[in-house]
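Need a sequence for this fold. Nothing fancy.
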């Protein structure tokens, strides 16, 4: 054999020794070299889209507001002696928030008490009123009326005696006229005494009112909480002179809260008082619940919405007025829906789809999703219950062969 004939055999032997992994060496096929044949099918896990029930809801957003809010001030003017609360302080109904310096008000009470004692004495009563309440004063029992009545009785007796003596010709006409005039004067003084007693009664009532007013002003020098809540703002400091009605603190009621919601007109017919409202606050993982408490009687023409208010319990103060809330109004208890695992949803460029298995191949289906419940997602449109949906499809595309694994 010539060298030209041996050269191809030597090259082939060298390549086989250098690259033993090549399946073509020795003239064998891929299966004969021990490499399994790849059918191209991708292994996937699937679940059947299940039919379940979810409550029918109207999804809206709104703002939490305080049930009550009041800028509180004194009913009387004066200098602030102390303020017991500050921003964020929680108070109960009747708690003291601030006090004015009480000196002036205490002096007015003492002055009114002295004037009342004087009025009582002028009516013949003891200076101090009884503990069981003010006693009733009879006009005829007052000293000024008793004195005038005694004078009147004496003048009447003198007139009667003068008349008797005049009839017996024992007294001249002038003396009878004098006795008659004295009687008439005494009668007028008696009427005047009754009027004076009534005037003193009126003065006594006025002094009592002045004392009650002075005591009320003393009580009004203390500012108390009209309802349980929290201090939203403090607007004055100790030592400051404040006018009547000037705001000192702003108090808000934080339990319960009002959730104000603007519901689209198309959903307004489904709303009723007492319906459950579920809400979430941004940054707070907890879910809260309330009830529809008030519904506006009219649709807002500018934005075609119906304003409603839900009452949301807030006993621990976790919710704050002014917070933005995403809410769901439950309008029906149960409604049949199609549910799939959240991991089966593929989102791209704002579109959502699932991949189902049909005839051994992947098929893409565009869907519209609704609510998420735990790890399940509601399919509103695009998928029937019972369809085999691929879980965690990754980069699986439609038309690709698939093999279902357990």
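Here you go.
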């Amino acid at each position: 054999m010539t060298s030209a004939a041996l050269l191809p055999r030597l090259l082939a032997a060298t390549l086989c020794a250098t690259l033993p992994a090549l399946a073509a060496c020795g003239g064998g096929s891929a299966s004969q070299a021990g490499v399994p044949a790849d059918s191209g099918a991708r292994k996937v896990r699937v679940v059947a889209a299940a039919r379940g029930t979810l409550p029918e809801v109207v999804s809206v957003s709104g703002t939490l507001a305080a049930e009550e809010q009041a800028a509180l001030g004194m009913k009387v003017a004066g200098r602030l002696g102390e303020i017991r609360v500050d921003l964020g302080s929680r108070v109960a109904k009747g708690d003291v928030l601030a006090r004015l310096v009480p000196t002036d008000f205490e002096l007015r009470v003492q002055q009114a008490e002295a004037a009342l004692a004087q009025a009582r004495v002028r009516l013949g009563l003891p200076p101090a009123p009884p503990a069981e309440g003010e006693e009733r004063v009879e006009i005829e029992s007052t000293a000024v009326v008793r004195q005038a009545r005694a004078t009147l009785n004496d003048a009447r007796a003198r007139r009667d005696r003068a008349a008797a003596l005049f009839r017996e010709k024992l007294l001249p006409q002038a003396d009878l006229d004098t006795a008659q005039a004295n009687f008439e004067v005494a009668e007028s003084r008696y009427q005047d005494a009754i009027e004076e007693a009534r005037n003193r009664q009126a003065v006594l009532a006025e002094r009592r009112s002045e004392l009650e007013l002075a005591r009320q002003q003393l009580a009004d020098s203390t500012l108390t909480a009209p309802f349980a809540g929290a201090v939203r703002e403090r607007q004055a400091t100790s030592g400051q002179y404040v006018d009547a009605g000037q705001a000192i603190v702003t108090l808000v009621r934080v339990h319960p809260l009002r959730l104000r919601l603007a519901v689209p007109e198309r959903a307004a017919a489904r709303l009723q008082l007492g319906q459950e409202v579920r809400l979430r606050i941004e940054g707070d993982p907890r879910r809260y619940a309330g009830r529809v408490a008030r519904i506006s009687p009219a649709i807002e023409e500018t934005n075609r919405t119906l304003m409603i208010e839900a009452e949301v319990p807030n006993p621990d103060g976790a919710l704050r007025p002014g917070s933005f809330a995403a809410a769901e109004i439950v309008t029906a208890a149960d409604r049949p829906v199609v549910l799939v695992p959240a991991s089966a949803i593929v989102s791209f460029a704002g579109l959502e789809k699932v991949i189902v298995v049909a005839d051994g191949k992947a098929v893409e289906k565009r869907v519209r999703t609704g609510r998420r419940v735990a790890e399940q997602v509601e399919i509103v449109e695009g998928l029937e219950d019972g369809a085999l949906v691929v879980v965690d499809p990754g980069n699986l595309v439609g038309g690709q062969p698939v093999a279902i694994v357990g």
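For context: Residues 173-220 form the longest helix (48 residues).
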